[in-house]
């Protein structure tokens, strides 16, 4: 069984994740809110030379990710038990990730719950600071008002350029939630962005 790293333990120490994980890899992918890890594992299979991190606050889901990765013989997966805010605060070094995926985050559709949404402009700003120049960001949701919210938030960041070509290599991969939504005829819309600076 693969290990689950808990960066939460690093809070207050200003120790970064690259002190407990080898970041010296030709490519680094991060699936934020990875859930049960279908997508994370598929990425790890496609890019065996890469470090593929799956991050989630739910431990039971990370155990499922590790189970899938072990069955697929992927030793390049790291399961991170953490909160998005902390991960994209001090825990990740700046400008080190090639591509970050945030797929079907909880949309918190009601206006009064809006502040619970993962994708605030501050959060997206923090995420992009962790991505290499020329790297990319992948955001996806089934929820149309949330999609509009994402477009508003991303348009406020001048160093993010919409670019669907950054998703070409994974256009055929579906997450668990995406597969569930497909059975309900709810398409998930994927947005790709290039990080310019
Ligand atoms: C709707 S699920 C989608 C899971 C997966 N991306 C998929 O599409 O199948 C959202 C996931 O994000 C995680 N999550 C939500 N907010 C989070 C946060 N602030 N920090 C870490 N994980 C979070 C949840 O625990 C959950 O597993």
Automatic annotation (TrEMBL):
GO terms for biological process: methylation. Pfam families: Methyltransf_4. Pathway: tRNA modification; N(7)-methylguanine-tRNA biosynthesis. S-adenosyl-L-methionine binds at residues 31, 56, 106. GO terms for molecular function: methyltransferase activity. Gene3D superfamilies: Vaccinia Virus protein VP39. InterPro entries: SAM-dependent_MTases_sf (IPR029063), tRNA_(Gua-N-7)_MeTrfase_Trmb (IPR003358), tRNA_methyltr_TrmB_bact (IPR055361). Catalyzes the formation of N(7)-methylguanine at position 46 (m7G46) in tRNA. It is an enzyme of class 2 (transferase). Keywords: Methyltransferase, S-adenosyl-L-methionine, Transferase, tRNA processing. It catalyses: guanosine(46) in tRNA + S-adenosyl-L-methionine = N(7)-methylguanosine(46) in tRNA + S-adenosyl-L-homocysteine. It comes from Lentisphaera profundi. The keyword Methyltransferase applies. Belongs to the class I-like SAM-binding methyltransferase superfamily. TrmB family. Substrate binds at residues 110, 142, 175-178. Its EC number is 2.1.1.33. This is tRNA (guanine-N(7)-)-methyltransferase. The keyword S-adenosyl-L-methionine applies.
